[in-house]
Amino acid sequence: MRVTLPDPAALIPGFAAAYAAQRAAERAGAEPAWQPVHTVYVPAGVFRAGTIAEWGRTAASMLAAHLRSPGALAGVFGVSSPALAADVHRRVTAKLATEPVEDLRIDFGDGGGGDAAAEDARAESAARHVAQMHAAGRLPRRWGPRVGSFAAGDPVRSLRTLDGFLTAVSDLAGGLPPGLVITFPRVLQEAYLGQFADCLAALERGLGPADGTLRFEMQVDDPRTLRFLRPGLVETAGGRLAAARFGVSGYTAACGLAPHEQRPDHPACDHARHVMQTAFAGTGVELADGSPALAPATASAADVRALWRRHAALVAHSLSHGYYQGGDTHPAHLVSRYVATYTFHLAHRPAYTAKAAAPTGPALTSLTTALARAHHALGD
To answer: What's 141's DSSP letter?
Structure first.
């Protein structure tokens, strides 16, 4: 065949190396690591060593009172298969008894109030309770503080709280327990990421853990943040950016939505989540959804079940959009979180397993990724 270009490869120098890096990133992302299905937020002022166990007991008692059987679960959550409902009911009951919370965030970012001495006292108190949980083997697999935002105009206060909290945990626990992730909210300027990462590096040098131990997740809770989301933020943050988490209430309010429209399944929220997916695709940065402002109106069975149905629908909405972790702010959320998550994965796992035995290429990669996620979420 007669051709015009004598040496096409010379026109695309560096392609082989770039393609090798692309394939390496694709292979690394094909088997996702374990990621919590949720994060539980507890205000620092009320956090105690027994808080997580109390959440588990409360959720278990609600399950026993209002979802006594697989049939009741099927009726409330619309699970059509009796066998699936029985499996989900068994799993949720066991989960609440053994590991009700997979990821804990002690929130210093909102609602603290008070003066500097009071903030210092909250940090020291929270650190003592974290150390007690670690000593007793009850600290969740992932944990950490949510600090104040630099956007509030006082980064020194935010950093002092973080420093005091982590220093006290390290002193009391003989080092920082594994699974630490710090939530950094309201990142309104790209520069905040590099500044925060530099502060973490300095704190790391002082505390003495291995390089890269202190990692953080940025909270995307303002539309202004979307303007600078891109893969290069991983480098901006010095390799310390572990995750990006959507913030529902802050984002919807900043968009000017009316209070009754400030909900996680609003199209504005879907847009933000899709921008996050595009910006961080192939980077290894985890994505997490926000938490809904929901609680049972009363303790009656009707109100608790109404809350569960609404929350489960929101969890299912997140899962369908590729967000496998969300936020929970009430013990009742644990029941609907696990019901919706387990139903999502169990309902599709048999078909995915059968299909994975045949195809190759992109279809196989998608199936094996989905099965790996199901394995992590279900714990089997």
So the answer is: S
Q: Which residue has the tokens 């409360």?
A: 58
Amino acid at 312: A
DSSP H or E run through 144: strand 142-146
Which residues are 288's β-sheet partners?
245
The burial of 270, by beta-carbon neighbours within 10 Å (0-12 exposed, 13-18 middle, 19 or more buried), is given as middle
Contact status, residue 215 vs residue 249, Cβ threshold 8 Å: no
Contact 292, 314 (CB under 8 A): yes
Q: What single-letter DSSP state applies at residue 180?
A: B
Q: Tell me what pLDDT residue 327 has.
A: 98
Query: pLDDT means per 10 residues in the chain (380 residues)?
Result: 91 90 68 93 97 98 98 98 98 98 93 76 98 98 97 95 98 98 98 98 96 97 98 96 97 97 97 98 96 94 98 98 98 98 97 83 82 95
> What is the amino acid identity at position 372?
A
Cite the beta strand spans of 171-302 per DSSP E.
182-184, 216-220, 241-246, 286-288
Instruction: Report the distance separating Cα 138 and Cα 130, nearest Å.
Output: 9
Amino acid present at 10: A
- List strand residue ranges (DSSP E) for 48-108, in order: 103-107
Q: Is 361 left (phi over 0), alpha (psi -120 to 50) or beta?
A: left
Q: What pLDDT sits at residue 111?
A: 46
Q: Is residue 379 within a helix (H) or strand (E), and if so which, with residue range? A: none
3-state secondary structure of 67: coil
| Chain position carrying tokens 């048999």 | 350
Secondary structure (3-state) at 148:
coil
Residue pair 183/245 in contact by the 8 Å Cβ criterion: yes
Q: Which residues of 218-247 are buried (b: 16+ CB within 10 A; e: fewer)?
A: bbbbbbebeebbeeebbebbbebbbbbbbb
Strand partners, 125: none
What's the pLDDT at 30?
55
Alpha-carbon dihedral of residues 29, 39, 312, 251, nearest 10 degrees?
Answer: -90
Backbone angles phi, psi at 180, to 5 degrees: -75, 130
Question: What is the dihedral sign for C-alpha 197, 105, 372, 349?
Answer: negative
* Token pair for 298: 């009363």
Threshold 0.90, pTM exceeds: yes
